[in-house]
Specification:
Length: 166
């Protein structure tokens, strides 16, 4: 039987990604809709920093950041296509100007790939911004002993008068 403490720890462990994922997607979509093309990077930085503080592993954070970046841009592009904006025609034009085959799917895939790369770079940067939290996650109980290369001196070995009396 699981104790209340174990259930609570498992609940926090699995609900944090379930809550931060959709929030990251919405932040990327809203930021990109506002013209902030670097929104996946910013959300990645926040996710990486939160992962360092919460002491989660970097691969889990990277996966969540990549998902947030791609899904956020895909949500925005899908919304614009549903509202009648010429997303496909714009993507074909961009692909042709970039020297790629005139394919809307290829341009959209390249856009989503750039969003994923931005989010991954941001997550790694956010993880690196908090080295103390990252080191605490790697080694939760640092050793309190002196290094092996330090040898006691003769003054350390002398007993004081109070120690000699006992």
């Amino acid at each position: 039987m699981l104790s209340q403490r174990m259930v609570s720890a498992r609940l926090r462990r699995y609900t944090a990604p379930l809550l931060t994922g959709p929030v990251g997607v919405l932040l990327v979509a809203l930021g990109s809709a506002a013209g902030l093309w670097y929104a996946p990077f910013a959300v990645g930085v926040l996710g990486g920093a939160a992962g360092a503080v919460r002491r989660t592993r970097l691969p889990a954070r990277l996966g969540l950041a990549a998902l947030s970046g791609a899904a956020g841009w895909a949500l925005l592009l899908g919304w614009r296509a549903l509202t009648g904006q010429p997303v496909g025609a714009t993507a074909e034009t961009i692909a042709a100007l970039a020297g790629l085959p005139s394919s809307a799917a290829l341009a959209v895939a390249a856009t989503l790939l750039v969003a994923v790369l931005q989010a991954l770079a941001g997550c790694a940067a956010g993880w690196a911004l908090l080295p103390a939290a990252r080191l605490a996650a790697a080694d939760p109980a640092p050793a309190a002993t002196a290094p092996a290369s330090v040898r006691p001196t003769s003054s350390d070995l002398r007993l004081t008068s109070s120690e000699q009396a006992s």
